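[User]
Protein folding is very new to me. Any chance you could explain this protein sequence and its structure tokens? I have pasted everything here:
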Amino acid sequence: MIDSKYDAFRAALQSLLQDITAELSSVSGIQSRLVTQEALTRRAQLLGKEASDLALHELSNLIGLHVTVFKPSELLPVADVLKSHFKTVNWQRSGQGSGENVVITATLTDQRAELPEWRRFAGLNFEIRLRTKASVAWSDVQHAITYKADARPREDCRPYREPRESDLILLDRTVDRFVELVSTPGVHEKRDIHPFLKDHPFLLHPNAAETFSEVAIGLGTDFKMDFMVREPDGAYLLIELENPNHNLFTAAGDFTAAVNHAQRQVEDWQQWIDENLSLMQKRYPDILSPRGLIVIGRNAALSPAERSRLARRNINLRGSLSIKTYDDVIGSVRQALASTRNAIMGLRS
């Protein structure tokens, strides 16, 4: 059974990798993940076992660390640095050009495994995957094009194909269509916007591990979250959609009933999950204190003073919940696509 000790090990490994690579200008970023209990159960079933009976060597990618470098020529030098700090169980180099990557299966060195803070993890294998910034960006593009809400989770090892500019153009046009949709008079968040986002969930999160639509959480069949996103690091995000034509503020400058109702609803979800965690974890094994997001209204309806008040409320919510307009969401998607395009163009230059 996956428990908090493995998540603590994952976090410690990520911190250690950051220290090891701090002086390497070739490293763009480091992320980590812990495999879900659901995926672990599937793996055990394939082996004819219970998840609790899996041996350490069968948990080789229970913990995964993704190291991103800028150029393909930097993959092997960084891999050599990492191999000098861990005991290498196996390593492989695959792909070519923009799809090249290096995967190292490693465990702690004998010296580190003897330290008190690491001793209980001696013998546990973990995976370090090195990829270029461009290949990660392009993988996200492919994911955005093919992935729909409630589909199977993304797989980092899915077949890679070379980038096509037409794929980026397709995503740009999808964003344009979404802008047209939310700008349509009489648009309805349940009838019109929800189905569109279910077909194109990258608009809600550019690289979600999974996106679930209309999630019932035990408050009755009439109480369903519009979307729930599992992020690459295993954290969850609860999303409530309101109408883009709703006002966020009254003439007196107070938040409208629509905003306050949506906030109360998301907070009720969060409280219910906290109080019924064991029940939720049967379906969503890694869920713990999920963040919330409300999408409502448009920027054009906000004065500078109202934008400032909205920012202040989001600050006061301390990250547990945020309120964004549809324009904020659209802007974030366009920025993500621009960063992706820059990474891919950098590969070609």
